[in-house]
Write a structure and sequence with these properties.
mainly alpha
């Protein structure tokens, strides 16, 4: 279980622009997550689920401008479902909105990574 005792208040959640400002390109993150999930020894951990939820959130945010296009609603539904999964996995308090929670956790994770290191799945 993820330690949620030191989480910022739900009101202190970052905007998508803040959370994803230094995130890898969508294509690079997609390739990396896919490769990690296909590895024979793959045991998908919290980091993988967090990055996957953040990726789906970013896709849904980009498609929001095209909500009449096929796939836009599906992207939002998938981002929502994956965010709820992470929230449940972390056993976080239910007063968190799932997708902003993902943004908060991703921003915290991203800042914990070595600024000079190439972000890869570990």
């Amino acid at each position: 279980m993820f330690d949620t005792t030191k989480l910022p208040a739900p009101a202190d959640l970052p905007t998508p622009e803040q959370a994803y400002a230094n995130a890898p390109h969508l294509a690079a993150e997609t390739t990396l997550l896919h490769a990690a999930s296909m590895a024979p020894e793959a045991e998908l951990d919290r980091e993988w689920y967090l990055r996957h939820a953040a990726l789906l959130d970013r896709v849904a945010l980009r498609l929001a401008a095209f909500d009449s296009e096929p796939g836009a609603a599906t992207a939002v539904e998938e981002a929502d479902a994956t965010a709820v999964y992470l929230l449940d996995m972390d056993q976080a308090p239910r007063d968190y909105d799932p997708r902003p929670y993902v943004r908060q956790q991703y921003a915290l994770w991203l800042t914990s990574q070595d600024a000079d290191a190439d972000i890869s799945y570990s």
